[in-house]
């Protein structure tokens, strides 16, 4: 049981790290720009597909990953300049409808280019092994690399946002966008940087998950709702909150799916416990969100406005 708990805990942390890479850019866009971007999930999906194509072209997953980062950065720039910039001053409903339409367009484009069948990326040979945990239990090296890459990204974001000039502008923009603009900061350029950087982080998450999960046209929609849950739990506009919220959501979701049926067997018949566990497990993250918002309406690290 100890080995299983440790295994699922690491799986939860790894899932949380991937959610953080997606939610970090989303919380900056939502918190600073007050922009509801439902298309953020499809950039994650496109990043995974680009990683598949670049890996096949170069024969190396590492090179494919490196090529995916500037490609998704460029996609973010193009979308911001052609689509999102025209929606900044529009009501949230207009933003939701426009970005939802973009989701449908990009998803259809992906199916035209890559097809509807799931794709996969071969695990890098150097990272295809596993290390022992406790007893006979082992854990894949690649998943540990994903955790390490996510932690390094979180540290980099902390240093950029907390100790650089662009980070100072981001923090100021999260507090008062109008004041930053009045002080002479080119707010449109700042928005462009945020969108492009957020798109690159989402593409990075897609490329990292490609060797673990199958790549399919619906994968972006599956994580977008959880990414919104993460930024609401952590506090809109807070990268630190996105990191804490992502870890909480990842661990609670993974542990609930693994141990929920086991715990329910203590008070229910095994068949009923299994069925109830499958039904209740997906609800746990939303129960967690409701409990946190009841105690802290602005989220764990959100600021009152």
List keywords for this structure.
73% helix; BCAA_transport_permease; 305 residues; 2% strand; 12 helices; mainly alpha; transmembrane transporter activity; amino-acid transport; ABC transporter involved in vitamin B12 uptake, BtuC; transmembrane helix; single chain; two-stranded antiparallel sheet; globular
What's this entry about, in short?
The protein is mostly helical and 305 residues long.
What order do the helices and strands come in, and which of them pair?
Elements: H1 2-33, H2 40-58, H3 61-82, H4 92-114, E1 130-132, E2 138-140, H5 141-163, H6 165-175, H7 177-182, H8 187-209, H9 219-234, H10 239-264, H11 270-280, H12 284-295
Antiparallel strand pairs: 1-2
Verbal overview:
It is found in: Cell membrane. It holds the Pfam family BPD_transp_2. One of its GO terms (cellular component) is plasma membrane. Belongs to the binding-protein-dependent transport system permease family. LivHM subfamily. With 305 residues, this protein is mostly helical. It has a single domain (14-295), classed as ABC transporter involved in vitamin B12 uptake, BtuC. Helix content is 73%, strand content 2%. The chain is globular, with a radius of gyration of 20 Å. Strand 1 (130-132) and strand 2 (138-140) form a beta hairpin. A two-stranded antiparallel ribbon has the order 1-2.
């Amino acid at each position: 049981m100890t080995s299983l708990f440790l295994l699922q805990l690491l799986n939860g942390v790894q899932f949380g790290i991937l959610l953080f890479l997606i939610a970090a850019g989303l919380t900056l866009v939502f918190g600073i720009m007050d922009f509801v971007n439902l298309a953020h999930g499809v950039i994650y999906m496109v990043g995974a597909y680009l990683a598949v194509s670049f890996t096949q072209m170069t024969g190396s997953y590492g090179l494919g990953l490196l090529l995916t980062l500037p490609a998704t950065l460029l996609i973010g720039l193009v979308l911001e300049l052609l689509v999102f910039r025209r929606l900044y001053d529009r009501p949230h409903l207009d933003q939701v409808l426009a970005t939802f339409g973009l989701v449908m367009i990009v998803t259809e484009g992906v199916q035209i280019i890559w097809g509807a069948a799931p794709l996969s990326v071969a695990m890098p040979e150097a990272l295809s092994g596993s290390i022992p945990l406790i007893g006979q239990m082992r854990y894949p090296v690649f998943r540990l690399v994903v955790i390490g890459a996510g932690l390094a990204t979180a540290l980099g974001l902390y240093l950029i946002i907390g100790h650089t000039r662009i980070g100072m502008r981001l923090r100021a923009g999260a507090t008062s966008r109008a004041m930053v603009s009045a002080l002479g900061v080119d707010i449109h350029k700042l928005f462009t940087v945020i969108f492009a950087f957020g798109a690159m982080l989402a593409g990075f998450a897609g490329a990292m998950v490609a060797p673990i999960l199958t790549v399919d046209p619906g994968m972006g929609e599956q994580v977008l709702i959880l990414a919104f849950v993460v930024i609401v739990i952590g506090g809109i506009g807070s990268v630190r909150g996105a990191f804490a919220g992502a870890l909480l959501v990842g661990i609670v979701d993974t542990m609930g799916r693994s141990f929920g049926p086991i715990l329910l067997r203590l008070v229910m018949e095994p068949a009923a416990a299994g069925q109830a566990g499958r039904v209740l497990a997906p609800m746990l993250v939303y129960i967690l969100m409701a409990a946190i918002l009841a105690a802290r309406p602005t989220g764990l690290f959100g600021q009152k406005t």
